[in-house]
DNA sequence: GTTAGTGCAAACCTTTTGCAGCTCT
DNA sequence: AGAGCTGCAAAAGGTTTGCACTAAC
């Protein structure tokens, strides 16, 4: 959803569009990244040095509770904070590299299907769905293999090392 | 994975099976529920009143890092703690009712497929996948409709009330 | 002019860390 | 015997709350 969409939605509900909220909405929407509360706070301070961290938390909570943004964990790669993104029409998975932290988004028809299956199977009414996938990106697979190899080389006795090398 | 499987796996790695860890492993495996650290700590204390909360956290971290248990958020329904379950061969989604907190597990072929798609699409190596779904269970949909209706009846002026009733 | 929203300080909850002492193998 | 674990205390990290003041509508 665009900032304008969110703004409209909030106005309709009689939620006040304060200066602080405008700043935060712009940041969430523009960045295109997945920001956490602290990062958002730092960015917001550049535009309004008086803004308070608590206001950031309160705004995020409000946006989440009104269903305008989605909250992500990103496999807790960066710690236990939450990340936020404006709610998309299309569901997608977040694919995160557990070595470099890069996040990719994956869209597919699997999500709609899964939703339908669950609604049918349990008579459940789905409101939010979150799929997060952790592993190694193409780039880091190579680097990691190298790291592991070095670790082995550094630790193992000479005979084992010679055997291990044969593969290369 | 069964407790025995976990025990074997730990032994093979030279990890010590202390009294405390035995207790915790049994609890995680037996309960069949999704326990968080605090709950696990409380249950463990019934078997060993001297066990420390920190030991629970350390054990969970170890089991998670060695890939023997999975960590869940369950949509943060109960707060920001994590929940744990022994790692299953089969992937599944956790479906949680945002009103009563009941958790269902949903198995399907969609997960394997998604995994393959992501591996092919990004050249990504998937290690962990987590799908969490929030909404209302069949039972709570009814209760919630009732609640909303009552809220409207209590708030709206008489004329609006009369109009709203017509649907019933 | 009201009432929702903000800032500040302080609390809260979950999890981690440092260190001395205990225990499993 | 000695590395690996535990318990205790304390700190860290992320988020929420109470309250008096401010500003959006």
Characterization of the model:
The structure is a homodimer of 168-residue chains. With 168 residues, chain A is an alpha+beta fold. Chain A has 2 domains: 3-136, Winged helix-like DNA-binding domain superfamily/Winged helix DNA-binding domain (Arc Repressor Mutant, subunit A); 137-168. Chain A has helices at residues 3-12, 19-31, 37-47, 53-65, 110-122, 138-155, 158-165; strands spanning 35-36, 69-72, 83-86, 92-97, 103-107, 125-136. Chain A is flat and about 60 Å long. The first copy, chain A, starts with a helix and ends with a helix. Chain A binds a DNA duplex (25 and 25 nucleotides) through residues 14-21, 36-38, 50-55, 57-58, 61, 79-82.
The amount of beta strand of chain A, in percent, is 15-25%
Full CATH superfamily name of the largest domain in chain A: Winged helix-like DNA-binding domain superfamily/Winged helix DNA-binding domain
Mean of residue pLDDT values of chain A: 88
Strand order of the largest sheet of chain A: 1-3-2
SSE arrangement of chain A, N to C: HHEHHEEEEHEHH
Radius of gyration of chain A, in angstroms, nearest whole number? 22 Å
């Amino acid at each position: 959803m665009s900032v304008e969409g969110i703004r409209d939605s909030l106005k309709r509900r009689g939620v006040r569009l304060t200066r602080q909220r405008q700043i935060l909405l712009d940041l969430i929407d523009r960045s295109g990244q997945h920001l956490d509360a602290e990062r958002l706070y730092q960015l917001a301070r550049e535009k309004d040095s008086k803004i308070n961290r608590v206001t950031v938390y309160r705004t995020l909570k409000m946006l989440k509770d009104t269903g305008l943004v989605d909250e992500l964990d990103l496999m807790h790669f960066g710690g236990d904070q939450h990340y936020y993104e404006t709610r998309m029409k299309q569901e997608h998975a977040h694919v995160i590299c557990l070595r470099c932290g890069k996040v990719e988004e994956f869209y597919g028809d699997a999500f709609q299907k899964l939703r339908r299956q669950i609604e049918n199977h349990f008579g459940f009414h789905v409101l939010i769905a979150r799929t997060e996938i952790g592993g190694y990106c193409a780039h880091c697979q190579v680097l990691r293999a190298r790291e592991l190899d070095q670790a082995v080389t550094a630790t193992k006795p000479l005979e084992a090392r010679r055997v291990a090398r044969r593969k290369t």
